[in-house]
Amino acid sequence: MCTVLLALISALGDTLPGYMAGIPIWISALMLVDRVKPSQRRQILLLFLIGLVGLVFGTLNGADHHYLLRALSANQMVVAMLIGVSFLRIVALAGIRSDETLPRGKRALLKTLLGTHLFGSVINISSTLIVGDRLSAHRPMQAVQGLTLLRSFAACAFWSPFFAAMGLTLVSAPGARLETLVLYGLPLAILALALSAWEIHRHPDADSAGGYPMHLGALWMPLLLAALVIVSHLIWPRVSVLTLVTLISLLFTLAWLTLKRGGAGLSEAVNHVRVGLPNLSGEVLLFAAASMLAAGVAATLSSLDLNLAPAHFGPLQACIVLLILVALAMAGMHPVTSVVLAGSILAPSVNDPNLLGLTLLMGWSLGVALSPFSGIQLSLQSRYGIKATELLKLNLLYAPVMLVICSLVIWLYGMLHPLA
């Protein structure tokens, strides 16, 4: 919570440098490292050490000291956004009914696809686990149900202002505009969901599979919040989107708790700080380590006067980068790491940050959907017993079709914005 408060003070005024908000992140990282799974801890430690070595080498070799402050900042605004958005889970859970009989059939699965996508666009992977636990409460989860959860979650990365993908993209592609990214990303999400709906409809188990009992009354929150962020950004364009998302998430939750629960609402918020926030340890450590990695890579490249970026970053280069991002995801690299690296390396050649931003969002979404090593796929495998090979088979059509669609959107953007 100190991180959130310091990040907001820094963003809304000039009284505090941004890197100060990173100090409590590193303190929290040291305190919470034991809560992280060993496999994830090893990955985080590797990123941290590579970044630290690069940072020390670059600094000793004449790199500017601002890279040290970049590492200290620990992606503070993205972490603050994750913390702020986590409070929305309190509101989301209140709109979910867990005592109803599961509806079955294709229609129920399609409602689950859309509803989980809308929930996921605000509360991230929590929505998938909430719905997944309900679907698997009385019988093992079927592959078509797992596919529904996977696609509904992955499509959020194309457009959602509340998704970590958007937060890190806006940091890695400085100057990218939220409204532009949403304008191109939202139709991509709709196409991805439409393709997924068609595949789910054709699946042989769709008629017997259970869906989640979604209600229109429970879906008002993600739609309202997305509208609030976009309108607020248009009214206050100088305030970063990450700051607006963090602030709106906190104020919205506090207002809802006050109206619905009165005095008990405050204790519920305090309980989330004490119990809920430590559950973000994995994400907090990953973003902190990614910050160290980005600073280390940038410091090393600067000190050696190396420029790995192409001479020009246009639609062709964007398509190549998209393929590389997906390949890295398939090899096991977390999207946080690949997006940070891509942003650091490509920055010198980027004339249009929106083109880079779109590419990073596409790479994140497709990487999450296709890679058996992504967080959501690992959850489906370990928590619900769905085989990685089964998901790979179900993605055989989705992968090439979405790569072609994303490439066409990149070229369309290049045609409409020739400077790209």
Structure description:
Helices cover 72% and strands 0% of the residues. The radius of gyration is 21 Å and the shape is globular. The protein is an all-alpha fold. It has helices at residues 2-12, 23-32, 38-60, 66-73, 76-86, 88-94, 106-123, 125-135, 143-154, 164-172, 178-202, 220-235, 241-261, 263-276, 281-303, 315-330, 335-346, 353-370, 375-384, 388-394, 398-416. The longest helix is centred in the middle third of the chain and has 25 residues, at 178-202. It starts with a helix and ends with a helix.
Averaging pLDDT over every residue, what do you get?
86
What is the count of distinct domains? Answer: 1
- Note the total helix count: 21
How many beta strands in the DSSP annotation?
0
The general outline is globular
Structural class: mainly alpha
Order of helices and strands: HHHHHHHHHHHHHHHHHHHHH
Q: Topology of this structure?
A:
Layout: H1 2-12, H2 23-32, H3 38-60, H4 66-73, H5 76-86, H6 88-94, H7 106-123, H8 125-135, H9 143-154, H10 164-172, H11 178-202, H12 220-235, H13 241-261, H14 263-276, H15 281-303, H16 315-330, H17 335-346, H18 353-370, H19 375-384, H20 388-394, H21 398-416
Helix pairs in contact: 1-5, 2-15, 3-15, 4-15, 5-10, 5-13, 5-15, 7-8, 7-9, 7-11, 7-12, 8-9, 8-19, 9-11, 9-18, 9-19, 10-17, 10-18, 11-18, 11-21, 12-13, 13-14, 15-17, 16-17, 16-18, 16-21, 17-18, 18-21
